[in-house]
Design a protein that fits this description.
Layout: H1 2-41, H2 51-84, H3 99-118, H4 141-159, H5 172-175, H6 192-205, H7 212-252
Helix pairs in contact: 1-2, 4-6, 4-7, 6-7
């Protein structure tokens, strides 16, 4: 937007300068022709004691002075008007404009707010995103699922310090295989890590976006794994505190 306005301003200034040069050229030509005509019609064919040449020259001098005065007056008037404009942003109030104008602005603003409110998606659905109006609104399922991998990896290293480093392209079932003994199995003999692995594989490899149900299964499995790891970490800290207190009691005895 701003480059276009700048180009328009430059073109306008160039056109104005060209117009002034053309007008000045024709005025100078007319002055020269009239002066030469006054010389040719004078008895002595000279500028000396030539009243016609004096009148023509004076007329053009007056024209030049009036033109400069008009341009200067216009420039001063524009400069004064620009000086009256506040340089800092200020919100218009009811007293700044006539009542009819303020009422019209208020109606247009209210109409724009109502249109923006009614235009918000309510029943729309975008593949791979949570539906508006639900607790998953604004959540992208693929990104949310993949973000849980790093969180679980950090918790796994707290519980198992020698846990293998995270490999971006390795399956989470293989990456977190040392966590399997800590996880409970369901009636099908599967742990939350198996469901989590399926969801992560879908988010990584599938060309389509995960559905809301697939996201729920994956994120629920991730929460279960995080809960188990947090409980294990807290038990480790409590055990360490108990050992330290027992050791301190023995030393005091």
């Amino acid at each position: 937007m701003f480059p276009r306005v700048s180009r328009r301003s430059t073109v306008s200034q160039i056109c104005y300068a060209v117009l002034v040069l053309i007008a000045t050229f024709f005025v100078a030509i007319s002055c020269a022709l009239l002066l030469s005509q006054a010389v040719r019609t004078a008895p002595n064919r000279s500028f000396v004691k030539n009243i016609n040449a004096v009148v023509i020259g004076a007329a053009y001098v007056v024209l030049l002075v009036l033109s400069l005065a008009f341009c200067l007056k216009r420039r001063i008037a524009v400069h004064r008007r620009l000086q009256r404009i506040a340089k800092t942003f200020r919100t218009l109030g009811k007293n700044d404009v006539p009542d009819s104008v303020f009422l019209y602005m208020q109606q247009e603003y209210t109409r724009a707010c109502l249109i923006a409110y009614e235009a918000r998606p309510k029943d729309g659905f975008q593949e791979g995103w949570g539906r508006p109006g639900t607790k998953y609104a604004g959540v992208r399922f693929r990104t949310a699922l993949l973000d849980t991998v790093r969180v679980i990896d950090e918790l796994a290293h707290l519980v198992i310090p020698r846990h293998p480093p995270l490999r971006p392209h390795a399956r989470v079932l293989h990456q977190f295989r040392f966590l399997l003994p800590l996880l409970s199995k369901d009636e099908d003999g599967l742990t939350p890590l198996h469901y989590y692995d399926s969801a992560i594989q879908l988010a990584r490899q599938s060309t389509r976006e995960p559905t809301e149900q697939e996201y729920i299964v994956g994120i629920r499995a991730a929460k279960e794994i995080e809960t188990v790891l947090n409980e294990c970490y807290l038990e480790m800290r409590e055990g360490s505190s108990t050992d330290l207190s027992t050791y301190a009691e023995r030393q005091s005895m």
